[in-house]
Specification:
Chain lengths: 430, 312
């Protein structure tokens, strides 16, 4: 009789459990600070919505998470909500495993910052909900600048300005190189956008599949030539490893470089490290090629995707949670915690009311850079399904220039390799 | 135990025991075969099948291309460079790694004060995971703030760019791999050296052999079985375990010629299969590596029979 009772009880319990909609949320934040924040938002949401249970879990890097989602979807066990990086957007779209968030229910996207929502709007549909977004800015060591006779109030804003500052730094014989940054294709994408130039053909891969890269353009030449000048004058240093964010940050915070470029999401960490090492850090706009209007930045970071194979209530639950997590108050909070942009205009207004920008003026530069971005296919960002590979090829091209190769040869080789990668990817659809 | 004669007899009957019928052995083998089939044979067959397709695991697309993946790989200058680099890397890590391990093990097995401590210190790097080892080396060889360049800079005023000078980066990864494998090899050599027949070495000494002669003419030939074993385990380690080290230390770079200077076969496979999602090409590479391992195994048996001196 006892057994029967247990069985009945178990049945009753599972009965209530199935009445609840479970929303699996896979993200790529392994650290306690950010994953803890996500968990706290899920707990709040679950309390307020007894019918839905959001279960966030860390699924490794964006790449691992994308692969895991696809394989799970093939077995009908896809998570409802997944955080994916921006370079994976076209690939995620082509996989057919996701549905545009704008088709789940009517959402008012007008509050989202324009350049941010533009990146994820493909073919007129908002495919994913912006979440953690950032763009690159110039960081500078104010103390070293003063030592070299430079005014930290007017940091360089162009390649030419940076190179002139480098001359002064060289003359001052500081024990530091002028400029350093992680060698990353992301910056090349930004510098193309700043010049209003699309990285890829077919409207930056947004009107049709990209079949060739505009790496033989004048805009691309400006970027490669900049690195050539840095190399011949020994104005640039990095660890030597591609995409080594931590290594480049460490070189800057150990005062071995005067200027540094990295994501706005690092403002908090770099400011802390600078304080510890006893120097004042400043933040300025991303220096761009000379003689061009400042068109603005392409958004980097990740967004929230909803899978196609889940039930309607699950998709609704996922979207509701994603909207809750990115609401005005939460995004302002997220920004203060991490340094990522709050993706809503209303969050920026809220932060301004709270006096955040007078407390941490470094952030203001980053915001202005983003909000002043001119909407165009160039600043919406290039889309291609082999973007992870093509980004690396571009890095290797710049690395060849830094290794002494001529600009012409490096550009030609890089374009040929990127075009081949695009061709190879597109062949999947024949 | 009490009756050794009976124990011996029952052992003999066990040895001569014969299964009645052909079915029973298969029943006993079934559990292992099932596990092998699910986790080894089926995936291996699936890999061979995929190698004939242009496939992308994310898109779920598959187009039959026959042997095109193989011909493209074998004709591609990038893949050839990667294969050549892997060969040089393997030869260097195996030969230098074993030589230094043997030398250190020989020294550590001498009756000296503190021999235990030396042995312990020589063996401990084995406890580090390749990922941690890679991170350590990355910190040490950071060209601007690493300890190595700070020392070199203050002593000789040189600051080599370890990670983006192709030859230096290659040398660094090779050195790191040798260092990482050293402890494993030393453990085996130490054990074998301690098991060397003392009378033979003593006889050599009495006959007036110098320490060098005693080592090369007597001890070294007696160590061939373990050297032989280590050569093959080290080849496999160089081919497959170099992955974590290169991923963390250099990410396969710097780009030089047609490929990254420290991109080896297994890293190329990882890049194509799990970063760029070119599943078909990656499967073809896996098939080529499978053939390579089959060849090495065949060599192991062939050489093993002919050349190795297994003692008295």
């Amino acid at each position: 009789l006892g057994n029967v009772k247990t069985i009945l009880l178990t049945l009753a319990l599972t009965g209530t459990a199935t009445a609840q909609t479970t929303v699996e949320f896979w993200h790529s934040f392994g650290d306690a600070k950010r994953s803890g924040w996500i968990q706290a938002r899920a707990d709040e949401f679950n309390k307020a919505n007894p019918g839905v249970k959001v279960v966030p879990s860390y699924k490794g890097s964006y790449n691992d998470s994308l692969q895991a989602t696809i394989l799970a979807a093939r077995q009908g066990k896809a998570p409802a909500l997944v955080q994916l990086f921006e370079v994976g957007s076209q690939l995620a779209l082509d996989s057919g495993a996701f549905q545009p968030v704008s088709s789940i229910k009517n959402v008012d996207f007008s509050d989202y910052i324009k350049p941010v929502i533009n990146y994820y709007t493909i073919g007129g549909k908002v495919n994913s909900l912006p979440f953690n977004s950032s763009s690159p800015v110039l960081y500078f060591n104010q103390d070293l600048m003063k030592k070299a006779g430079l005014n930290p109030k007017t940091p360089p804003t162009t390649f030419g300005g940076l190179l002139r500052a480098c001359q002064k730094i060289e003359a001052a014989q500081l024990e530091a190189t002028c400029f350093g940054m992680s060698l990353n294709g992301w910056f090349v994408e930004q510098w193309m956008a700043q010049q209003g130039a699309a990285l890829l053909n077919n409207g930056n891969g947004r009107q049709g599949r990209a079949t060739a890269a505009n790496l033989d353009s004048a805009a691309a030449r400006n970027i490669f030539t900049f690195f050539k000048t840095l190399q011949t004058n020994k104005y640039y240093t990095y660890t030597g490893k591609l995409e080594d964010w931590d290594g480049s940050d460490a070189i800057f915070t150990n005062q071995k470089t005067v200027f540094h470029i990295t994501s706005t999401a690092d403002i908090g960490n770099i400011r802390e490290a600078a304080q510890k090492n006893g120097f004042n850090v400043g933040v300025g706009v991303l220096p761009i090629a000379d003689g061009t209007k400042r068109n603005g930045v392409v958004i980097g970071g990740a967004s929230l995707w909803i899978t196609k194979s889940v039930s309607k209530p699950q998709a609704m639950g996922a979207l509701d949670f994603a909207l809750y997590m990115t609401n005005t108050r939460n995004m302002a909070d997220w920004h203060k915690l991490t340094g990522y942009y709050p993706v809503r205009q209303s969050s920026i207004d809220l932060l301004r009311q709270q006096g955040w920008f007078t407390q941490s003026p470094l952030q203001l530069v980053a915001f202005n850079q983003l909000t002043k971005t001119v909407a165009s296919p160039a600043t919406a960002g290039g889309l291609n399904g082999a973007a992870i590979q093509t980004r690396k090829i571009i890095e290797e091209g710049i690395q060849k220039v830094l290794g002494g190769q001529s600009v012409d040869a490096a550009m030609k080789d890089t374009k040929a390799r990127v075009d081949a990668a695009l061709r190879e990817y597109n062949a999947n659809f024949k | 135990m009490l009756n050794p004669g009976r124990a011996r007899r029952s052992a003999a009957t066990e040895q001569n025991a014969v299964f009645r019928g052909a079915g029973l052995p298969w029943v006993f083998l079934l559990p292992s075969l099932l596990i092998l089939a699910v986790f080894i044979y089926l995936p291996a067959l699936q890999t061979l099948r995929l190698a004939a397709y242009r496939a992308n695991v994310i898109l779920g697309t598959e187009q039959f291309v026959g042997l095109a993946n193989f011909t493209e790989l074998l004709l591609s200058p990038a893949y050839r460079q990667v294969a050549l680099q892997t060969l040089v890397f393997t030869v260097l890590t195996v030969s230098l790694g074993l030589l230094s391990a043997l030398g250190l093990a020989w020294l550590a097995s001498r009756p000296i004060r503190g021999a235990q401590t030396y042995r312990l210190l020589l063996i401990y790097p084995y406890a580090l995971s390749p990922a941690i080892a890679g991170t350590l080396w990355l910190f040490l060889f950071n060209p601007e703030i690493g300890v190595v360049n700070q020392i070199l800079g203050s002593l000789f005023d040189v600051r080599p760019r370890w990670l983006d000078t192709p030859l230096l980066a290659f040398g660094l990864v090779t050195l790191a791999a040798i260092w990482k494998g050293l402890a494993y090899n030393i453990v085996f050599y130490l054990a074998s050296i301690q098991n060397l027949p003392g009378d033979v070495l003593e006889a050599a000494e009495i006959d007036g052999a110098t320490p060098a002669q005693a080592f090369w003419r007597v001890a070294f030939p007696l160590l061939t079985p373990i050297t032989f074993f280590l050569v093959f385990t080290n080849i496999i380690a160089a081919l497959f375990d170099s992955f974590a080290l290169t991923d963390i230390l250099t990410r396969g770079g710097p780009y030089s010629g047609n490929a990254g200077a420290t991109t080896f076969l297994v890293y190329q496979l990882y890049q194509d299969g799990f970063v760029n999602f070119k599943t078909g090409v990656a499967a073809a590479q896996a098939a080529l590596m499978l053939a390579l391992v089959a060849f090495i195994t065949w060599m192991q048996f062939r050489v093993g029979e002919r050349r190795v001196h297994y003692g008295a």
